[in-house]
Every structure is written in C-alpha cells, then in structure tokens.
Automatic annotation (TrEMBL):
Protein name, as recorded: ATPase
Carbohydrate kinase FGGY N-terminal domain: residues covered: 15-241
Domain of life of the organism encoding this protein: Bacteria
GO molecular function, one term: kinase activity
Pfam families (alphabetical): FGGY_C (PF02782), FGGY_N (PF00370)
A GO biological process held by the record: carbohydrate metabolic process
Keyword set, alphabetical order: Kinase, Transferase
Length: 532
C-alpha cells in the first residue's frame, strides 16, 4: 500500500476528520493506513448569553473555515501540495444540546450547548414518562423545556439537530445523524438502532394538546449506523468548508457523530466489555454493555456506540478547567522569577510531585465546579478549595487533591455500574488532556475506578482522528467487517497501550478522600447560594 503522504493527498486518497470540541476545533488528515499525516486547529470559547451557554453560528463557520485553512497551510508547508480531493470526510462535535431551525434553514434561537442545566423540570418529567433516565443536556430535554416555557419559536421548528448534524447538513444537504449522536437526542432502541418508537409515541401524545404543526419524527434527523454513506459534499458545501475554492465537491461523508462516539473509536472501545474515559474540559466514561441495566439511574445515561451497541455513560460537566487554572498560577510565579515557561514541564513537575502526597490528600478537598454538576445535584458551580487548620497543607497534597477532584464525580457514577449492577469490563482506556503527563492521570483514575487503565500513544490524536477512522470505515472496509473488527485488524493491531493497575493503598486513599468530598458538598452548595 502506498504510504507516501504527498502521493496519498495528490491522488485524493486522504481522509479528513473534523471535530468541534468545547475549546478547540481540530482537523486530522489520515492516509490509507489510518495514520495521521496532517492537522489543523482553531481555538474558540463558548459565550454566556441571556443565562445560557452558546456558540454563534458565525463562530461555528468561522471556526470551521479557519481550522480547515490551518490544515491546508500545514499540508502546503509539509508536502508542498494543495488538497483538491479526498476519499471521505467525517464531522463530529460535542453531543446533545439544542439547534432548532425554521423552514428557511435559519436557527430559531441561539445554539444551547450540553453545558446548560436549565432543563431540570423537563428532564424529570420525561424521565418519569419514559421510565428511562433523560439527562438535562439531551436535545429532547431542551425541546420539552422550551415547550414548558411556552417559547414562541417551538411552533416554527422544521428541523432539530445537534452541532455535528447541523454542519453535516449544511455541507451535504442531508438531514441525518450517526446513531451515537442521535442517542443524545432521544433514546435509541438497541433492536432497531433507531429512535425508540414507544418514546416517540409517548412524547407526541404528551404535546398533542399544544397543537404544534409537527410530530417528533418530522423534525428529527434520520438515524444511520457506522459504515452507511450519508451524503456527499455539495458545491455550496465545498465553498463553505474551503473558502479558497480548491476542494472539489462529490466527496462521500460518513454519518456525523458525537464526541463520545469518536472517543470510543479512537480508543478501540466499541466492543462489549470495553470502555473508555475522556477527561478534558468535561469528562465522561463509556462502558459498552453486554445487556441492559436492571433499572434507570439518574446518574447514568444510556447511549450507543457508532454501530449501535448499548453504552452506559457517566457524564460530568467539570474536569480539568479548575486544575488548569491552578497550574497557571505556578506559570505566573515562574514568569515573575524571570524563568522561561514550558507548560509541559510545569504540568509534569506538579503532576508527578502530586504522587508524593498522602493517598487521602491529607484531608484537603477541591471542588472543580466551573458549572453545575447534575450527578451531585448542583445546578450552579463555584470552584472551591476546602481545608481545615489541622490538614496537611503542602504542594503535593494540594495538587493531588485537585487531580482527585477531576475524576471524583466520575467515580460516584461508576460505582453504580461496578458495585450495584456488577458490570464487568476487560479493558478501560483513558484519553484527553488529563493523561498528557505520562502515568499520572492514569494512576489517579485507576485508583478512583479500582480498575487497570490503559493509555495508547494514538489516543492523543483524539476525536478528530476517531471521526476520520469512521470515514475510513465507510470507504475502506472492503471485507465487510464489523466496526470492532475493522478497528482491531486495520487500526490497532498490536497496540494494546500502556496499562497501570491500582494499588490497594491508592484505592483506600481515594475512597477516604471521596468520603470527605461527599460530606463537604454542603459547603459547595452553600457557596453557590451565597455568592451572586
């Protein structure tokens, strides 16, 4: 097989994956052997508008175009060639949220992201109606909350989709969604790999008295599984992606997916009894189940892999933002001393020193709540560091407490799966910013989940690489393999990653910290109520 990147690009055999994360849009170009050969990126931030977290459509399109332009520039610099054609494209983005459009294809209200927690009443009522846990951030919760709020735009909805579904629609003209991302809009029936017909009927009956001109399936994207073609790049779409005009239309797209699904693909965790943990701005764990859980749990979301297998997802709104903020204080101190700053070195020194701390952090507690945290029942967040005069306050314990905080809520949710439901896993893989410093995040997470944690070198490529692999599966799966089979044989053959197992001492220390953490939640709750 030809592995020369320049020839691959020249012959139009390269594959493009683009993922919209919460702080970065990333593009990855891969070759026929699924190896990354070029990247591009664009930094962006959500905005708080009228009390809701959002990104404007202008920011979405500028970000996409700037990310692709960065990729083009890197390709020209590295290979002295222009991207004219591609074998396939995939679009991925942060899941859930609310993007309703009218008949003119204009968005009716600003994009409401996964981060918003204003849908409590809707989520609770739907969970009771469906006898199924419906999280605050799911699209159906946002839709029903808008109905409860009697928002005038609801009657005008012609199409409701996610961020990935929106971009895919605008580039291809197709109103479709990968089953993994669709499972964050409305529950999926594992037997049909489509929206639950029972829940669709229940919802339509619930809102029928409102007299809307639509029924639920009229406005939802069509559900597709991995390997199904979901449209081609239109001439208009080509110009929206590549404003330079070099990219040709007609390129096939795989189904658009959510970041949870691409994380599963990027860590080879789509097979039953495997799992992965993504730990960055937010964190979530995905465990692919052998069977349905015995009952609904408010802390556990039921979603699917990109090929439709049932997944238990524990999603936490907060992870490394507060940890990064503390590390930045040490960066500022280093700058005051006039010492050149290498952030990888700063993180490495602080993280590794944390492992010298007491396993229970000496009594120190950190709450990393930049925003509300549904699993611990908090609608708002206030970052908070708590200690008493008798605690062992030193740098190692301080950093260890902040590292523990980044996975504490994740631990609370997963205890249900492992302790109550007796779910068994053969392998859990970690990826994301928490694992960038080798060995440290792995050891912390292994202590929290009391399970060995693997990290692959390729996991650092992230979700953009994951969606590129799904696009590769669309066009290169000539043997007709399952997604898991394709990943095992064509992508991850011989790459089991580096594994760290928990020690009894670390597990006992984390559990002691967790008990302090739970007792101190009343302090966090009081802080959210006291500070305007």
């Amino acid at each position: 097989m030809n592995s020369d990147p320049k020839s691959t690009i020249a012959q139009g055999k390269a594959i493009l994956g683009i993922e919209f994360g919460s702080t970065r849009i990333k593009a990855v170009l891969i070759d026929e052997e699924n190896k990354p050969i070029a990247q591009g990126s664009h930094e962006w931030e959500n905005q708080l508008s009228d009390g809701l977290w959002t990104y404007s459509t202008e920011a979405i399109w500028y970000g996409l175009q700037d990310c692709y332009a960065d990729l083009r520039a890197n390709v020209r610099k590295e290979y002295d060639i222009e991207i004219e054609n591609l074998a396939a494209i995939g679009i991925s983005a942060m899941m859930h949220g609310y993007m309703p459009f009218g008949k003119d294809a204009d968005i009716l209200v600003p994009f409401r992201t996964w981060r918003n927690t204003n849908t409590g009443k809707a989520a609770a009522e739907l969970s009771e109606l469906f006898v199924y846990n419906i999280p605050l951030r799911w699209s159906i919760s946002h839709l029903y909350q808008a109905i409860l709020n009697e928002e005038p735009h609801v009657k005008n909805i012609d199409y409701l989709t996610t961020l990935a579904g929106y971009i895919h629609w605008q580039l291809t003209g197709e109103k479709v969604l990968g089953v993994g991302d669709a499972s964050g809009m409305l529950p999926i029936d594992p037997a049909t790999k489509d929206y639950s017909a029972e829940m669709v009927e229940k919802f339509d009956n619930l809102v029928a008295p409102k007299g809307f001109p639509w029924k639920l399936l009229d406005i939802m994207p069509k559900v597709l599984v991995a390997g199904e073609e979901s449209g081609k790049l239109t001439a208009e779409g080509a110009m929206r992606l590549d404003v330079s005009g070099h990219l040709k239309p007609g390129i096939p797209f795989c189904p658009p997916e959510g970041d949870a699904g691409t994380g599963m693909v990027a860590t080879n965790a789509v097979l039953q009894r495997t799992g992965n943990v993504s730990a960055g701005t937010s964190s979530f764990s995905m465990i692919v189940l052998e069977k349905e859980l015995s009952k609904p749990y408010e802390m556990i979301d039921m979603v699917t892999t990109p090929d439709g297998s049932l997944v238990a997802m524990v999603h936490c709104n907060n992870c490394t933002s507060d940890l990064n903020a503390w590390v930045n204080l040490f960066k500022e101190y280093q700058e005051l001393l006039g010492i050149p700053v290498n952030m990888n070195q700063v993180f490495g020194l602080l993280y590794n020193n944390a492992l010298n701390g007491d396993t229970d952090c000496g009594g120190l507690i950190s709450y990393n709540y930049y925003s509300g945290e549904p699993i611990t029942g908090l609608e708002e967040g206030r970052p908070l560091f708590v200690r008493s005069a008798s605690d062992k306050f030193n740098l190692a314990n301080f950093m260890r407490a902040n590292l523990y905080a980044s996975v504490c809520v994740l631990k609370i949710g997963n205890d249900i799966l492992f302790n109550d439901e007796k779910v068994e896993v053969d392998r859990i893989t970690g990826h994301g910013g928490l694992f960038k410093t080798p060995g440290v995040g792995q050891r912390i997470l292994a202590s929290a989940l009391n399970s060995p944690i693997s990290v692959m070198e390729t996991a650092g490529e992230g979700g953009a690489w994951g969606i590129a692999l799904l696009a590769s599966f669309l066009v290169n799966n000539i043997k007709g393999q399952s997604l898991a089979g394709y990943l095992n044989d064509r992508v991850f053959l011989g790459d089991a990653g580096t594994e760290i197992a928990p020690t009894p001492e670390d597990v006992a220390g984390f559990n002691a910290y967790l008990e302090n953490y739970k007792r101190g939640l009343a302090i966090e709750r009081a802080a959210t109520e006291a500070k305007a």
